[in-house]
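Quick one:
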Amino acid sequence: MRTTEYDISHPYKAQVLSNDRITPPDTDEVRHLVLSIPDATFNFVEGQSIGVLAPPSADFGNEHHLRLYSIASSRQGEDGNLAEISICVRRCFYIDDISGERHPGIASNYLCDAKPGSDLMITGPYGRQFQAPKDSTANLLMIGIGTGIAPFRAFMKHIYEERKEWQGKVRLFYGARTGMDLLYMNDQNDDLSLYYDQATFKAFEAISTRPHFDEPPDIERCLMDNALEVWEMIQDPKTYIYVSGLSSLERSLDRIMIALAGSEKEWNEIKKKLIAERRWATLFYD
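Output:
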């Protein structure tokens, strides 16, 4: 769905409570923002996104620039405060195809520069297809790259802190350019390390083989190194698969699954069945 198709007619005012960088200075800048939304009508669940209405560039006549961000908090709010949520934002830039000039991304730079105490307008929440199952014996296979980790942080807080006893397998495959870029798993913020001692949880990290050449994380190799468990989980009718990150991840994942299934036709049939049973959910962005 294009951003122009989202309903922004009922925005909420949010205040920035904190804005912290969660990557080291010599890596891509990614920030964790905590927002206060005092309006009691704002309710959400894990896996949903908010829209941020950033001031538009002077080059455009739109009243707002809309960008979606996954909520990184569970339904109980950030740190259990129902009036607060968090989002994960990477400072982005793009190259003009004609001039070759480098320009800052409107929404990401607006948010990364937002000071605690400042107000901004948000819309949503959007999307309900990216949610953890109610059955605590279900298996969760989560695959993400970059800021695609945000909804999985929300999942983990929900199933382990709020639902307490999760009995199914929980496997997280997460990719980043370097080990320092592993969001919520580095020296700046290691929220996810809280769940490493959970008997049902395992995390697998995929790092780029040549980070200085801006090569993407080797998520394909990471998954293939654990192909037996991945394929067993996919074939288990109690497994739910969630994929979040750059749109290029979809092509990588299809290549892996075709290899595991034995043919493109066989994988397409399996994927179609997973979608029909609502056990396959994706959240991609450019």
